Amino acid sequence: MRRLAVVGHPVAHSRSPAMHNAAFAALGLAGEWSYEAIDLAPERFAAGIAGLRERGFAGVNVTVPHKRAACELADARSDTVAAIGAANTLSFTAAGIRADNTDAGGLLAALPAGFDPRGAASLVLGAGGSARAAAWALAGAGAE
């Protein structure tokens, strides 16, 4: 069984396990893949991630408050993570931990079809990893 998780603190409220496990079931992968929520306090983040790798997890999604710590913990970072300074995805490989960020691309993909953000006034509320990703994505798309 391949295992994935969302890690955060707190994380019990996350809908990610239900959504991912439903997707695995719909794709006929329920017996091959599983997804769970794991609460890691900030002072246990690095040790917790190491433990998940040792237990054979394939990777994790990262949420509050660990997105910056995930970036720093990684052995390799995507260009997006390097620019934003926050990661929401850690993949575990034989070569180490790779960090990526899907928040920026997700925000742009969620814009209405045909909407061109170039020159559009934008306001990002927040100061965490998702807000950093949103600001970076909008600036890169030409929004003001």
Instruction: Quickly name the level 1 CATH class of the largest domain.
Output: Alpha Beta
Strand order of the largest sheet: 2-1-3-5-6-4
User: What is the percentage of strand-forming residues?
Assistant: 15-25%
Terminal residue distance: 46 Å
Radius of gyration: 16 Å
Q: Sum up the overall morphology in one term.
A: globular
State the major sheet: 6 strands, mixed
Structural class: alpha/beta
Question: Any idea what the CATH architecture of the largest domain is?
Answer: 3-Layer(aba) Sandwich
Overall number of strands? 6
Overall pLDDT score: 97
Count of runs of 4 or more consecutive helical residues = 6
Give the CATH H-level superfamily of the largest domain: Leucine Dehydrogenase, chain A, domain 1
Low-confidence stretches: none
Whole-number tally of structural domains? 2
Written description of the protein model:
The chain is an alpha/beta fold. The protein folds into two domains: 2-101, 3-Layer(aba) Sandwich (Rossmann fold); 105-140, no CATH class. Helices cover 38% and strands 22% of the residues. It has six helices and six strands. The chain has helices spanning 16-26, 45-54, 67-73, 79-84, 103-110, 129-140; strands at 2-8, 33-39, 57-62, 76-77, 89-93, 96-100. It has a six-stranded mixed beta sheet with strand order 2-1-3-5-6-4, sandwiched between helices. Helix 1 (16-26) links the parallel strand 1 (2-8) and strand 2. Helix 5 (103-110) packs across helix 6. The longest helix is centred in the C-terminal third of the chain and has 12 residues, at 129-140. The chain starts with a strand and ends with a helix.
